[in-house]
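lol forgot to send this yesterday, sorry. struct tokens for the thing we talked abt
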């Protein structure tokens, strides 16, 4: 049960019929309630789920739950979008998490500043975090659920403004794999993507064929790729061809 409930609108009176102007606001102060509410909403969403997520230190468990829920919605054909702080790309574990989110079918963008967590489901329901009540220093931020098309549509419009200003993950600043590429690796990748064979790459660069194969093996290991095709796919997601 929610810790506090506020209901307003023509349909708020007991026994009154549902009305489009009705607004229901519920606060869930306990962390264990948050996952339950979000699972319920994720299971019921039909068309769209949009999220602002701050992430960062201490948010690992919540981000993993969010990934599981987002992946499940995406598999059902729901359009799932998420905006994260750009600063996460500078932390290798967080950058890897964003790539996992993208690989799960979520459209991911990054923004310089994400003010708070916000989720909007089917433009009908919004969930956001609130500041803990006075005297509850150190307490988890309560989750607030807002139901009602009129108010939820306002949150959806706010989300859209952040989404339009955010940068797609694929065009964001280079990830850790790109940052670690040496001149020889870049040359091998450039020629490989142009269809050159290992022997031809070796002749072009003045190195041996085993040298080329060693470069590719090292790249596959670094990218945790099981094949050259998978390595090429992962590099294509991170590396701007103009930088090769």
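and heres what i got for the seq, position by position
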């Amino acid at each position: 049960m929610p810790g506090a409930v506020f209901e307003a609108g023509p349909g708020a009176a007991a026994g009154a019929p549902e009305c489009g102007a009705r607004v229901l606001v519920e606060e869930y102060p306990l962390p264990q309630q948050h996952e339950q509410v979000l699972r319920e909403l994720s299971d019921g969403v039909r068309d769209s789920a949009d999220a602002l997520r701050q992430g960062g230190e201490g948010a690992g468990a919540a981000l993993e739950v969010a990934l599981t829920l987002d992946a499940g919605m995406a598999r059902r054909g729901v359009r799932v979008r998420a905006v994260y702080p750009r600063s996460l790309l500078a932390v290798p574990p967080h950058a890897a998490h964003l790539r996992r989110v993208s690989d799960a079918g979520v459209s991911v963008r990054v923004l310089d500043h994400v003010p708070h967590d916000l989720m909007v489901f089917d433009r009908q329901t919004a969930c956001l975090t609130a500041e803990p009540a006075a005297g509850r220093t150190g307490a988890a931020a309560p989750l607030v659920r807002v139901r009602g098309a009129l108010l939820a549509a306002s949150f959806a419009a706010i989300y859209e403004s952040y989404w339009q200003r955010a940068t797609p993950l694929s065009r964001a600043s280079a990830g850790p794999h790109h940052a670690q590429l040496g001149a020889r690796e870049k040359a091998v990748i450039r020629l490989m993507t142009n269809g050159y064979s290992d022997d031809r790459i070796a002749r072009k660069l003045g190195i041996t064929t085993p040298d080329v194969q060693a470069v590719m093996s090292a790249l596959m290991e670094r990218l945790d790729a099981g094949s050259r095709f998978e390595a090429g796919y992962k590099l294509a997601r991170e590396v701007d061809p103009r930088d090769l």
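The chain has nine helices and nine strands. anyway ping me if u want another try
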